[in-house]
Amino acid sequence: DTADVYGKRGGSETCLGKYLGARRKDIFLASKFGGPMHAPEDKNGNMKGCSRRYIMQAVEASLKRLNTDWIDLYQMHRFDQETPLDETMRALDDLVKQGKVRYLGFSTLVGWPFVDMQWTARQLGTTPLTCCESEYSILKRGAERDLIPAMLKHGAQLLPYYPLAGGFLTGKYKRSAPLPEGARITKGERYQGMFISEENWDILDRLEAFCAARNRTLLELAFGWLLAQPVIATVIAGATKPEQLEANIRAIEWELTPAEVAEVNEISKKD
């Protein structure tokens, strides 16, 4: 999972393109477009959005950086209120027909734009959205208000990011101890404000007790709970060290029962 704006104007895609090589056929590759590139050559601020002109420009640039002929999942990075939806959906459908893109998605979306895009695709007879990316975890449940019900109704799936709540659900943060150096949550007040609160500490205590009673870890619970949700296709989980990646892979082995999911929902309920 990457995007054209990641890594200073395409750096992430370029790095990934160099790595893939012969592995490309074994990789499901997702990228995004639409966010402002802030490129030096973009004097008028036009390198953004979901117009047909920019979509065609953006996909060719991403394909070149990724060193590939196709992108498996191409996602709009933000909702463009200045471009008619039919223009956007027709352009994306053309990319699918050309074989440059296989599936369409959206990132950081709420319910009503998703429904609007699915309805537009249906009316036009173009390719609909297959999935959406959204923040979703045991601690962050905003997607349940309208996005997830809309996705279930329209047969799409969710790709949750921040599944570990900025590391808060790894078990390495303790209420009575300083935050560990180098952790994402220590990089600024933004992350700390998103996840650290007395209410979340209380929930964390209850979740850790739930895990201890089953000889499981909080990390396993964070992934297991997500994968037990019917709307989830897969989980977007970042890692800065090989051992973190290995731990994330091992964590998916816990298949929660419906009763366990219900209990976790109850003990993580917020006021």
Plain-language structure description:
- The mean pLDDT is 90.
- The protein has 10 helices and 5 strands, in the order αβαβαβαβαβααααα.
- The relative contact order is 0.09.
- It has helices spanning 6-20, 52-66, 85-97, 111-124, 147-154, 189-195, 198-212, 218-227, 242-251, 258-267; strands spanning 30-33, 71-76, 101-107, 131-135, 157-161.
- It has a domain at 1-129: Alpha-Beta Barrel (TIM Barrel), CATH 3.20.20.
- α1 (6-20) crosses α2 (52-66), α3 (85-97) crosses α4 and α4 (111-124) runs parallel beside α5.
- The two termini are 34 Å apart.
- 43% of the residues lie in helices and 10% in strands.
- The protein has 271 residues and is an alpha/beta fold.
- The longest helix has 15 residues, at 6-20.
- The chain has a 5-stranded parallel beta sheet with strand order 1-2-3-4-5, with helices on one face.
Keywords:
271 residues, alpha/beta, TIM Barrel, 5 strands, globular
Give, in spatial order, the strands making up the sheet with the most strands.
1-2-3-4-5
Distance between the termini: 34 Å
SSE pattern: HEHEHEHEHEHHHHH
What's the CATH first level of the domain at 1-129? Alpha Beta
Contiguous helical run count: 10
Kindly state the number of beta strands.
Answer: 5
CATH topology title of the domain at 1-129: TIM Barrel
**Mean pLDDT over all positions:** 90
Strand content: 5-15%
Q: Return residue spans where pLDDT drops below 50 for at least 5 consecutive residues.
A: none
Largest sheet: 5 strands, parallel
What form results from the Cα inertia axes?
globular
Oligomer: single chain
Q: Structural class of the helices, strands and pairings?
A: alpha/beta
**If you compute it from the alpha carbons, what radius of gyration comes out, rounded to the nearest whole angstrom?**
20 Å
User: What would you give as the CATH superfamily of the domain at 1-129?
Assistant: NADP-dependent oxidoreductase domain
The residue fraction in helices comes out at 40-55%
User: So, CATH architecture of the domain at 1-129?
Assistant: Alpha-Beta Barrel
